[in-house]
């Protein structure tokens, strides 16, 4: 059997991607740059995964065929990829540029018809991003035609995974790892299915999971909570954010063809997962970088832009943003005047007509 090569042995890699590759019948070679971690993986020929909400089988041993250092064992990594048809990544978007030249070197003289790269990164259009990086290395028309045969689909990935100081991974029963059926009709991996409407489901997860988690984390700071699960469990916080969540339901239904009942199901599941006290995530690791999260492209403002485009009032969601700004200012010891907030929001939002509208509306609330 050919190996499946996985780049990135961090929390998501060992908590989600490697386990589902193994469950799909693959022998997996893990590639990373952390020498201490790799030594442990080699010595144990795998690692222990703690599934915190599985009462029957909370500890699972995940076997590894091999573990390689992409810096110190680069030649062996290239040779291993050359033998593989399946490559996966969980390295974060900014590190995909280091994987692309390895794929090129390994497969430039190979028939690429049955090869696939599945980028399990928590960003939109991960496959398209990686293909652009890979294309930069193609020199001849022959190489360009051959590399077109590699299936590099966009993905959606989701599993709460936490890594402790001793590299132990704690996770949950739930997992989601799917690819765009139009780009990769069949991964031949049982636990990485090809699905329709990958874009809609990406935004379903982004808004109902990520936007929700970030919002309740800031609201939780105000109540002096310590952990994200406490904020998810708090009824007062959830009542406050409910109107914003209902706006997300409307957006997903109208623009992304996700029925309201399906969104409600997913949101209930997301809140339950975030309420899991067995994976304690400190609030201050989530409630951070608010101003970076208030750009037009980010999780709080992007859905409001989309809602405005289809003529839906977003004043309730803007009230939530104002409250988060107030909380953030207090906990960052940054006493911002109305004029200072106005200047920041103007710089972030007044880049198009809809952004201008949102800016005018939110300034009536400050």
UniProtKB/TrEMBL annotation:
BP GO annotations: mannitol catabolic process
Gene Ontology cellular component annotations, sorted alphabetically: cytosol
Annotated Mannitol dehydrogenase N-terminal domain residues: 4-188
Signal peptide positions on this chain: none
Superkingdom classification of source: Bacteria
GO molecular function term, any single one: mannitol-1-phosphate 5-dehydrogenase activity
Protein name: Mannitol dehydrogenase N-terminal domain-containing protein
UniProt KW keywords: Oxidoreductase
Residues that span the membrane, as ranges: none
Upper lineage: Bacteria, Bacillati, Bacillota, Erysipelotrichia, Erysipelotrichales
Catalysis performed (reactions): D-mannitol 1-phosphate + NAD(+) = beta-D-fructose 6-phosphate + NADH + H(+)
